[in-house]
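Hi D.,

Good news: the full-assembly prediction came through. Inputs first.
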Amino acid sequence: MGLTAYLVVAAILFVIGLVMVASRRNLIYVLMGLELILNAANLNLVAFNRFNPTTKFVAGQDVPVLDGQIAAIFVIILAAAEAALALAIVLNVYSLFETIRPDDIDNLKD
Amino acid sequence: MLPILEGLLPGLESVSPLGPSAYLWLLAVPLLPLAAWMLQVTIGRFLPRQGDWMPTGAMGLSAVIAIVHLIKVLAHWDADFLLASAQDGYGWRFFFTAEFPAAIAGFKAGILYDNLSAILLAMVALVSFLVHLFSIGYMQGDSRYNIFFSNLPFFTFAMLALVLSDNLLFFFVFWELMGLCSYLLIGHLAQDEKEPRMSAAWAALKAFMTTRVGDVCLFIGMAVFWVNFETLSFHGLYTATADHVAANGWESWMTFGGVMMFLGAVGKSAQFPLHVWLPDAMEGPTPVSAMIHAATMVAAGVYLTGRIYLLCSPEARLVVACVGAFTAIFAATIGITSFDIKKVLAYSTISQLGYMICAIGVGGVAAGLFHVITHAMFKACLFLGSGSVIHGCHHEQDMREMGGLRKKMPITYLTMLVSTLAISGVPLFAGFYSKDAIIGKALERSQESGELIWALPFWILLGAAAITAFYMFRLIFMTFHGTPRSKHAEHAHESPWTMTVPLLVLGFFAVFSGKFWLADPLHAVSGGNDPWFLQLVQDPDLERWESGHVTAAGGLGGHGALAEHHEGEVAHHEHYVGAEAHHEAMIFSVLAAGTGILLAFLFYFWKVLSAARVAASLGGIYRLVLNKYWIDELYQVVVVRGTMKFSDALFWIDRTLVDGLVHAVAGTMRRLAGLSAATDRIVVDGAVNWLGETTIAAGQATRRIQTGRIQQYAYFTFAGALALAAVVLFDLI
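Then the structure:
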């Protein structure tokens, strides 16, 4: 297997997420698509760090560098915050327009 | 110190006969009425009795000053008395800077106070004061009482200042002021609040316009002399003219200038071609008529003629004599046919003015001016008397509606009778002396020259004297004798004291202003001394004057002045050729007056002859005279209508040519403006609009991208990201 398999899975997730964001008729699904995209990125980060391990000499011994995993954790935290914020916005959008179809919310055009 | 006083002071020392303050006193004579006018115009309304006492009082004061100075002059008794402030260094130089031409910068204006001015000044002030006093009674109840009493002193001021002017320019200024005042006063009733009289407005306009013709001529005459001699002071002109005549003889421009200046007098003194305004001026209140006819307007014309006599060439003098003689007889004939009491007096004034002018023309300057004085007295008395009659008869002026007023108005009757005797030339009355002097002068002149043209004035004046006596007695008989012919005449009453006192004073002077014969009753009619006026003012000796022997006193001063130069020849001058002529003339003039009076008795007292029958037998001639020779109608047709036609023509030119030109320019301008507007609209606005529209179109075209759909934006975002990725991956740039 190796790195390629991870990358393929991540790519598939990304595309699924992208299609969801672009074409779902419900803002909740659009947000879900966003989560898929973020997780595709996470998968990539973790996979790259696993298949290209590096060490760093700290306090007389070699310590593995876990940058990818750390970045993934940041993204997860970010995604959580984003979801909270985005859902709040969706709620407000619903209370304002009484719909969450993104096609109906086109006030920005004027 | 005021600059005017600085100018005055050096002159004061040389004024010995009248005392050092003479100039200031003399200045006060015209300035008092002026001050009264100013006060009356501003605060007169608010004073008790509408302020009538103030101008009257001021006039009384200035009359006293003038008379006191006249008495001083009389006490001096010197034919060469002369007080000319301009010659004593009182100039108005400080008005001008050195940049003016020499003649203008050196222009001096001052007071001229010689015997003639002294007498005239006193006469004008006295008569004006009496007219003021009379007006208090006569104008009672007038709706513009206070305005009347402001115009009256202003009129007097102009005349007094005119008499004192020592140069023609100031003379002219006051002359014009009098024209204005006569306009205001003749038209006084035109603005009456109760019954405005349109005819008064027309009369005022006529007087103003007619005298204006003369005034323009006077100005031209002044200009002619100014151009040649560069001086306008009387004495400067006398000297310059004498020098010029001695060197070059009389030149035609001098005749022209002299005649032109005389035409000014023709207008003001109502001589023949320009006499039409005076009868119409009767529209003014009667005191105004008295003022115009006796003291002011018309006297000014004769005074001017007397003052410019020395500037007139022999030809100009002939014109003066002919105009005067013709006017004398011409107006007298109209006087016979008139029925309006004031119109009769108006024509008599014109006729008497003709006398004075004619006298000056034939060389009797002193006699003519003497007649001004005596005439002023009895004519003022007659006018105020007629005012009293009109007042008593409730403003009835037609003599046919009067009659029998003798007992009802004794004082008026008496004074008017005395004045009528005076104007008729009955011996012992003032008019006799002056008229006799005039007729004597005319006869003397005709005998001297022996030409027919110079004999005419004498006979004409004699005829006019007879006619004058006739129509004046006609007036007396129709007004005061017989039985009352109307209700007004029956209920007539004597006037209040303010009106009778002036009558009595003037009546006194109508008897004694010629010669105070009580002092020397034996020589009342002839012999003895000459009348006082002829002693003080003497005819200039032309022959000697023309040969260049002019003196400072020049003007009207007589032989005394010349005596300094020619002491040996004085005797010749004093016993002039005319002594015999005068006796002859006196007989003629008394005969003429007697004839006139006898005829008046026949027609109107005994009624032996019928005026109506004579009038009927004369037919056309009577109608011609009754209608005043159709002169007014002629002027109406020729002058007034001609002027109207001319104005119409000018109006046409104005409307078609001038307005047409203006309109053409305006049209062109409008077209140019239209072109400019089109350019603005099409080119400039077009460019701006095109830019705007293009921008809008571009906006419209590109706004479709902004759909507002976030998912679409997401597509673009990804597409963009992909494109960037492609660029980076395949290294496209």
